[in-house]
Structures are given as structure tokens and as C-alpha cells.
Amino acid sequence: MPVMSSEALVVPSAPAIAPTPRPLRLGVLASGNGSNFAALAEAIAQGELAAQIQVLIYNNPDAFVAERSKQWQIPSVLLNHRHYPNRESLDAAIVETLKAYGVEWVVMAGWMRIVTPVLLNAYPQRVINLHPSLLPSFRGLHAVEQALAAGVKITGCTVHLVEEEVDSGPILVQAAVPVLPDDTPATLHARIQVQEHRILKQAIADIAARQSQASC
Q1: Which of 98, 155, 158, 178 is the right S-S partner for 27, CB 3.0 to 4.6 Å?
Q2: To the nearest whole number, what is the mean pLDDT of the chain?
Q3: Which residues are catalytic?
Q4: From CA 160, how far away is CA 203, in angstroms rounded?
């Protein structure tokens, strides 16, 4: 029997992307370490993506993603969810901030809050999320642990459009990652995260390409 490679199988393959006349203006929402935020910022800096991160919004005061935004000289705004009476009021503050920075598309990259129609109606079909499973499998929290508990041989990650029901929107890009016999949540998550960086960049490139075609 051939041994399954630990490399991911990415679907679909990334097309050649022509640069857009104007960079796609992104707003990133993040709650923690911010590795996907950094991957996007680096790809933009290296000219791989016709995009620009207008602002980072984070909700945890100690989130390391704020330090990453300083490193990349990208504006950041702390909107601590604990200071808002409900999700709708938090989302209203998010929308106000995104609009102030001229954001066109919203990227939830490790944003650990459920969003409401307040945000989704302000950016209809322009909010994307990165989730560490092959949706529709293993929605919600602890997706990596869910996959290990289920004993699946393949899991992965998904970029999808956000709808009101959690992790239910149309799928944009997925990457499959084999589950190895000795995997732990930490080792599996680390390999999934490598592919998260890839497919998030691919999804942004596809969106930028469509915008460019629409503007021609």
C-alpha cells in the first residue's frame, strides 16, 4: 500500500491571476495569534496579491495579532466584545470602523465571534471566513479535535462566504490534509494552518480577479 503524503491536496488549483487596476481593500477580523493575517500581509508586500489591508480589527486586548499589525504598519483597532451589551452592538461598531477605513471585503481570519446580520447586511456576500475543516464536516468550535475524535483519515480547511448560520455559506476554496496515525490536535492543526495560508491567499486572488473583470 502506498503511504499517503502529508502534503495537502488543494482544490481547485490556483489560476494565473492578472493584476487588478486597483487593489482590493480588505478589512481583517482576528482574535488571536494572527498567522493568517501575517500571511496575507506578506503576500501583499511581495506583490502576490492585488489587495491592501486597510485595517485590522481585534477583540482581545492581549491578542498577538496586534503586534503583527505594528510590524506590518497596518492600522489596528481594538473592539473588545466584553464592552458591548450584545453581538449586534459589537457588529455595529465593526461596520462603522470598516466603513471609516474604506473596506470593500471583510476577512474573518481566526475571528472567534459569531457575526450577525448587522455586519452581513452591511457587506452582503462580501464577508469570508477561514475554517479548519472540510466543510460541511466539523462546523463550529474545536474542528480539529472533532476530526480526531471522529477518526477521519482526511480533514483540511475551507474558505467560505459567511451567512447567518455558522459555517454554512458557499464554499470558495478548500484544501485536504491527511490525518496521520500519530497526530495530536497540535500537530494536525499546524499542518492545516500551512494550507490555511495558501487557500486564503487563493480566495483573495480569485475575488480580486473577478473585481478586475467586472470593472473592465
Answers
A1: 98
A2: 92
A3: 131
A4: 9
